[in-house]
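Sanity check. The docking grid for guanosine-5'-monophosphate depends on where the pocket ends up, so I'm generating a full predicted complex first rather than guessing from homology. Inputs follow.
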Amino acid sequence: MVSTVPEFVSPDVMEVLLSKEQIAERVQAVGEQISAEYKGQSIVLIGVLKGAAIFLADLARAIKVDNTFDFVAVSSYGRARVSSGAVKLIKDIDNPIEGRHVILVEDILDTGLTLSYLRGLMLQHKPASLKIATCLDKPSRRLVPIEADYACFKIPNAFVIGYGMDYAERYRGVPDIRLYPDNPPAGH
Ligand code: 5GP
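Predicted complex below; grid placement will be based on this.
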């Protein structure tokens, strides 16, 4: 595969879609909702690397019930964003989840291919329950029928970066969520 590194565009010139204050407020609310729904139980949060790492870190701190973390990683089905549907697991969970209450934590629910693949895979481990939490949901992009149980924001079809989300691995540390100026960027 030929890969060219795109030129760096400063996040300062990118329009803010969701400020860090808006994000913090929604993540707190979703954390409270999860805490109420799982009261008295213990849960396993499974983050999808790398994009969900920052969301998981914030969500976990807003969840007041007993919880542990695990992480999975999947190979993207191709940067072209034309979905072949081929998602591959490149890092599995470290600890068994049989009989556990599991929440899969993702940065963006877009076509739905990644989460439906992961949901199928996790269900094979026979958890007591399995739910999905996503920071962003782009319902207009869905190719397979899957919905999040917890979604902080529904957004239109635009390519975003920040709050864990990258373009060519950059911008994950940008604290708010911004619109990438060349939208969608070349190659996506
Ligand atoms: P899905 O399988 O639902 O199409 O893919 C979800 C994954 O695609 C996300 O976890 C994320 O890695 C990537 N993705 C989808 N939309 C965007 C976007 O707007 N910005 C970024 N940075 N990644 C995206």
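Relevant for the grid: The first strand starts at residue 16 and ends at 18.
Also worth noting: The first helix runs from residue 20 to 37.
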